[in-house]
Amino acid sequence: MTQPTKIIFDTDPGIDDAMALLFIEASPDLDLVAVTTIFGNSDIETTTRNALYMKQRFGLTAPIYKGTDKPLVRPRNPSPTFVHGENGLGDVELTGLVPAKPEAKPAHQAIIDLARQFPGEVVLCAVGPLTNLALALQADPEVASLLKSVVIMGGAFGLAGKPGNVTPVAEANIWNDPEAADQVFTAPWPLTAISLDVTTQVVMSPDYMQALEASAGDAGAFLNAISKPYAAFYGSRDGVVGCCVHDAAAVAFVIDPTLFTLQRGSVRVLTEGIGLGQTCLKAEGELFGPSAWDDQPIQAVSVAVDEARLLKLYRETLLAANAA
Ligand code: BDR
Ligand code: CA
Predict the structure, then answer these.
(1) What is 179-231 written as a DSSP string?
(2) Cβ of residue 14 lying under 6 Å from some atom of ligand 1
């Protein structure tokens, strides 16, 4: 049997972040070595509290490192309480909450130290604004060659699905720190972006969530509870019946990349103007005159997903963990 892949999960829990975190924890293919938190779906105190809550309630052994509280150069956007609730977890009561503290080390330093401790072994999966990743690159540029890969949930390329969710052209994680995102897309590490193009094509229906509650123990019950307001938001705004699977799709890519079809190319992020936060791809091999995409690393972005297989993987992973 192959060794499970070491994974750092950089996250802003967040309802779909919680779905992704419990997916990692349940997967025999992944070894969660750290959770690093970031602002985004809520402020940093709240997202860190939520990660600590989940560690305690679901017995996670991975340490929790608190990330930065603001974007690199601009003020933090207001929290999307209309999607994730005031408490970041759908305003479901956090039963039995015992206040706990994160590790003393800041998130970006934990990323650097783990990359150095396990060179070439760690996948960094980031599903919030990319500020911690940019800070790690700034503090230690060699981190780019020490990680096995970087997988993000972020961006929208207009290749399929939706081209944006906070503006007509910008996805939330990128829009929340466009400068950081541009640094992360143009760093010399192998990066795959699981974007809105595909994450809006994977939907957990109310029946699917109910079945998780019935057969995936406390994790299933918690996920069904927190998903209800999230599904209500997507229903009222986009007419989606159920929950778009954003962050867990990035985790699914780490477990089984064959679920996705990718397009390779260099990516720049717009950091000003009405397109703020737009992710722009120059496909590999396309010829243009001189541009800001020249000599940038070739990364990968998702263009298609096998929804049925991804939903099956998620369900079977949680059920198997509950039965173990
Ligand atoms: C992304 O933004 C956040 O609200 C979600 O957790 C997800 O990471 C979707 O655009
Ligand atoms: Ca997220």
Answers:
(1) HHHHHHHTSSS-EEEE-HHHHTT-EE-HHHHHHHHHHSHHHHHHHHHHHHHHH
(2) yes
- Summarised one tens digit per residue, pLDDT across range 35-67 is 999 999 999 999 999 999 999 999 999 999 999
**In this structure, are residues 256 and 262 in contact, taking their beta carbons and an 8 Å threshold?**
no
pLDDT band at 1 (very low <50, low <70, confident <90, very high): low
Q: Does ligand 1 have an atom closer than 6 angstroms to the CB of 50?
A: no
How far is residue 272 CA from its own chain's centroid?
24
Q: Is the model's pLDDT at 236 over the cut of 80?
A: no
pLDDT band at 238 (very low <50, low <70, confident <90, very high): confident
Three-state DSSP class for residue 7: strand
Q: What separation in Å is there between the alpha carbon of 243 and the centre of ligand 1?
A: 12
Tokens of residue 123, six digits: 């996948």
Six-digit token string for 169: 């052209």
The alpha carbon of residue 281 and the mean position of all alpha carbons in its chain are separated, in whole angstroms, by 20
pLDDT on residue 96: 84
Crossing angle of helices 217-238 and 206-215, rounded to 10°: 170
Burial group, residue 63, by CB count within 10 angstroms (0-12, 13-18, 19+):
middle
What pLDDT, on a 0 to 100 scale, did the predictor assign at position 232? 79
Predicted TM-score of the model (pTM): 0.97
CA angle 51, 146, 4 (to 5 degrees): 55
Mean pLDDT in the chain?
95
* Ligand 1 binding pocket includes 41 (Cβ within 6 Å): yes
Q: Is the dihedral of CA 109, 114, 120, 125 positive or negative?
A: negative
d(C-alpha 67, C-alpha 149), whole Å: 20
In the chain the domains, ranked by start, together with CATH numbers, are: 5-323 (3.90.245.10)
3 state SS for 248-265: HHHHHHHHCHHHEEEEEE
Which atom in ligand 1 lies closest to the alpha carbon of residue 83? Answer: 4
Q: Which pair of structure tokens corresponds to residue 22?
A: 């419990």
